[in-house]
Design brief:
The complex is a heterodimer of chains A (165) and B (654). Chain A is of the alpha+beta class. Chain A has helices spanning 17-27, 60-64, 91-95, 124-128, 139-164; strands spanning 4-7, 29-31, 38-42, 47-51, 70-72, 79-81, 102-103, 110-111, 134-137. With 654 residues, chain B is α+β, with helices and mostly antiparallel strands. In chain B, a hairpin with a 2-residue loop joins strand 17 (425-426) and strand 18 (429-430). In chain B, the strands form 4 sheets. In chain B, strands 2-1-6-3-4-5 form a 6-stranded mixed sheet. Chain B has a 6-stranded mixed sheet with strand order 8-7-12-9-10-11, with helices on both faces. A 3-stranded antiparallel sheet of chain B has the order 14-15-16. In chain B, helix 22 crosses helix 26. The chains are: A alpha+beta (165), B alpha+beta (654). Chains A and B meet through helix 1, strand 2, strand 3 and helix 4 of A and helix 4, strand 13, helix 7 and strand 14 of B. Strand 2 of chain A pairs antiparallel with strand 13 of chain B.
Chain lengths: 165, 654
């Protein structure tokens, strides 16, 4: 079964380990703007969210690309951007519903998640995530596990309620 | 340039000047960054006799070469100034994301000097630096001020350093926050910032940190992060926060109960990490690039404080306004007090310490309700603690006296040496929530020797002592002997403290978190050297690396020496040496222990190469560390310190 990145927003601690790992792995520099994955923090209420590429089957970024630089890769099945063909029009960036595409500050071309292509241990963001907010897993298996979890929760709650009554 | 941004930002609030100074290669190599840069600025630019509230005094925010990189936990900031609490050298360290953001904006250090005519805040937008009006946020809680500034600058993603109302009211232990809830608590620089009419420093950085050998650096960081995944200390800290220490502290007798009269309480589990995570934990939080994420976010669900929320608490923040003042039955009271000190912008440790000291004065009959303005300072009286915290922050009534810190308050109330006996402070700063009779004699020694008011749990953070039992072999690796792993022994402790102090000074120079050192087995000192070298492209040896720490440490010690503080002040509160630990919990392990500080001091001096008579760093050592100018400064002072007039003085603060 193919693996994908699964984001569990409840578990995100907002530490940006994913951000800094991504940027270092891909660009050899540590920075927030060079990362393919983003963290949104609301300091006052302490909420944190992770916003990365959701690996759409029918990606809007590829659909709006005027040059074909952003297209679905036939092998990996995800949208990829060819920087040599990209003209830096920012259409993909604007149309991505998850804010997962950015423009490189120096080359001015668009760049996005490539699942750390070729890295044995899987994408760095999932590998480095300390809280389990980003996981690299097959969606079917993840959903199965979740179903069990939910069912278990429901049953224990019901038993408890019975005991109380 | 790799690692460093290469410049210091200096803001003069009196003149409105903004100066960017390049930092030379030699300078960076000598001090590394963070605490090193800060200590150098304080030593050279703030004369010891200057008042901490003088407009010419400096507040430094130091970042290191590792800030903002992928090394474990690189969001820390060191804040330094001449402390209004102790009158001596003061620095404190905070987590969060602000440090990384400043590096991305292109600065290694921000130094603020002068005094603005009206309340202002500084807005650093990469190269563009502005001083803006802050009249509308003056007096506001950090959380509200943070929201207003973000709305005003139309960017939710910026990071802001703030002070609370206590800093504005010059409470001597006011602290600084970044990202609303991350506090650099100790030594009271919040008041210094407040005295400069500065409310906040907002930063947006859109650059990055360049790495000399990115591939190798990535491999090292990756290896360390893999090790963290199964590290027992990481798992405990992530699951329960630093409150995971509560039950250990209670068992080993170092959880302060009623101003450290006892080392634990049978009800300690009420506030343990295990209970906290089951009852009020909303979710977990992490500082920049942290593989541990020990931060908590708490929401109180029931009782009289229902609906309150805040980032925190952690062990040192909640214990002083909890068990130390005798509150344990309802943990919600403790969380509320922690929330309150946060919002008002005060150091939780010092706040709890002054209140608990006042409570002990009350218990012993040194003060009565007449002195306290009618407040009944009985142990565990939450109403009074809640009232006092607010009175201290706004300097009202009895709170106004306590806002001076315990030692000063004792003198103000005219309690004499008897009052000072119960302050549980060294060099004017109160000890944190750790009783060295149980936590370990190494800690006790470092409480006596620390260079930020002589008191701190982070100055040496004897990881080898604290984690020794958890990681067999760790002590052998560092000290060649397993015996020092036992907390209540003096064997090997002087060298351990010497080593740890130097090591932690380097860690503060790099500005990574103390939890990502050999506190756990994941990151050893050699690993830190490796990522430092690959990040910056330098080729330090382990000796050179630790020598930087020793240099910083001796410079700070010399600052105290210039204030006439030396061997005579290297003591711990007499409670630890004179009162054997009484039993309060059935399974307590350290009953009857006292701290044999006298046994350890001479050996420690030998390792440090301090003069036995004065306790000043020897001339030989200073020259060896490249601090010839410091040696010159201390030359005339050695004799003065030994003069009869100096010997007669009792110094609790400076």
């Amino acid at each position: 079964m193919e693996k994908v990145l699964i984001y569990d927003q409840e578990k995100c601690t907002g530490c940006r380990s994913c951000v800094v790992g991504c940027s270092l792995y891909h660009e050899g520099e540590c920075s927030k703007i060079l990362s393919r994955v983003n963290i949104v923090r609301y300091e006052r209420t302490g909420e944190c969210y992770v916003a990365g590429c959701d690996l759409c089957t029918d990606p809007p970024c590829a659909a709006v690309c005027p040059t074909g630089a952003c297209a679905v890769d036939p092998v990996m099945g995800i949208a990829k951007i060819d920087p040599d063909v990209c003209i830096g029009c920012k259409e993909c960036m604007i149309h991505c519903p998850f804010g997962a595409i950015k423009i490189h500050p120096i080359t001015k071309k668009a760049f996005k998640c490539d699942l750390c292509e070729g890295r044995e241990e899987g994408p760095v963001c999932a590998d480095w995530c300390p809280g389990g907010a980003i996981t690299w897993a097959s969606p079917e298996l993840a959903v199965k596990a979740k179903k069990r979890e939910k069912l278990h929760e429901r049953i224990t709650a019901a038993t408890k309620a019975k005991e109380v009554s | 340039m790799y690692g460093w941004a290469g410049q210091r930002l200096r803001v003069d609030l009196s003149k409105g000047d903004i100066i960017k100074e390049p930092l030379s290669y030699e300078y960076r190599k000598k001090w590394i960054g963070g605490r090193g840069f800060n200590s150098d600025v304080i030593y050279n630019e703030v004369p010891p006799e200057m008042s901490p509230f003088d407009p010419r005094t400096r507040v430094c925010f130091g970042m290191g070469p590792l800030n903002g990189t992928a090394a474990p936990s690189t969001g820390r900031v060191t804040v330094s100034c001449k402390s209004p609490l102790t009158g001596g050298f003061g620095d404190s360290n905070m987590g969060g994301h602000w440090g990384a953001e400043v590096k991305y904006a292109g600065y290694d250090q921000i130094v603020v000097q002068g005094k603005a005519k009206k309340p202002v805040y500084i807005w650093v937008d990469d190269d563009k630096v502005e001083i803006r009006d802050a009249s509308h946020i003056w007096g506001k809680f950090p959380r509200d001020a943070d929201t207003i500034i973000k709305e005003e600058l139309k960017d939710e993603d910026i990071h802001i350093v703030l002070i609370g109302p206590a800093g504005e009211n010059l409470v001597r232990f006011a602290c600084t926050f970044n990202d609303v809830y991350r506090a650099a608590g100790r030594t009271g620089h919040g008041a210094v910032i407040g005295s400069k009419n500065l409310k906040a420093i907002a930063v947006r950085g859109s650059g990055g940190v360049k790495i000399a050998n990115p591939k190798e650096f990535f491999e090292i960081c990756n290896r360390l992060r893999q090790k963290f995944k199964n590290d027992p200390m990481k798992l405990a800290l992530n699951e329960y926060g630093s409150l995971c220490l509560i039950n250990y502290a209670n068992r080993d007798g170092w959880l302060p109960w009623k101003n450290l009269q006892w080392g634990g309480t049978p009800l300690a589990n009420n506030m343990s990490g295990e209970t906290h995570s089951k009852t009020v934990l909303k979710h977990r939080e992490g500082c920049y690039a942290c593989p541990i994420c020990c931060g908590r976010f708490t929401e109180i669900k029931e009782g009289r404080w229902a609906g309150e929320y805040f980032g925190g608490p952690e062990y040192e923040h909640s214990v002083p306004t909890g068990p130390r003042v005798g509150i344990i039955e309802d943990a919600n009271d403790i969380w509320h007090n922690a929330r309150l000190t946060n919002d008002l912008g005060m150091d939780g440790i010092e706040t709890g310490a002054v209140i608990s000291t006042a409570m002990e004065w009350y218990q012993r009959g040194l003060i009565t309700a007449k002195d306290t303005g009618g407040l009944d300072l009985e142990w565990g009286n939450e109403d009074v603690v809640d009232q006092l915290i607010q009175d201290i922050a706004y300097r009202r009534g009895f709170g106004d006296i306590l806002a001076e810190g315990a030692s000063r308050a004792s003198d103000k109330l005219g309690l004499g040496d008897k009052g000072q006996y119960y302050t549980i402070a060294t060099r004017g700063m109160a000890l944190p929530g750790d009783d060295p009779r149980g936590l370990g004699f190494g800690y006790g020694l470092s409480f006596a020797m620390g260079t930020r008011g002589g008191c701190d749990h982070l100055r040496s953070l004897c990881c080898l002592e604290l984690s020794g039992a958890l990681y067999p072999g760790l002590n052998t690796k560092y000290l060649g002997d397993e015996r020092p792993a036992k907390p209540t022994t003096t064997v090997g402790k002087p060298y351990m403290v010497y080593y740890e102090e130097n090591q932690k000074a380097v860690v503060d120079c790099l500005n990574v978190c103390c939890f990502t050192t050999h506190w756990s087995y994941a990151v050893l000192t050699q690993d830190q050297l490796d990522y430092f070298n690959t990040c910056t492209g330098l080729d330090f040896t382990l000796e050179e690396f630790l020598e930087v720490g020793e240099r910083v440490y001796n410079l700070e010690r010399a600052y105290w020496a210039r204030l006439m503080s030396g061997a005579r002040e290297d003591t711990v509160p007499e409670r630890f040496t004179k009162e054997p630990m009484p039993q309060h919990v059935d399974y307590q392990t350290n009953v009857g222990a006292t701290l044999p500080i006298g046994e350890m001091l001479p050996k420690y001096y030998k390792y440090r190469d301090y003069e036995l008579s004065t306790g000043f760093p020897s001339e030989r050592k200073l020259k060896q560390l490249g601090l010839d100018y410091v040696a010159e400064d201390l030359k005339p002072l050695r004799k003065k310190y030994m003069s009869e007039a100096e010997k007669k003085k009792r110094k609790y603060y400076y």
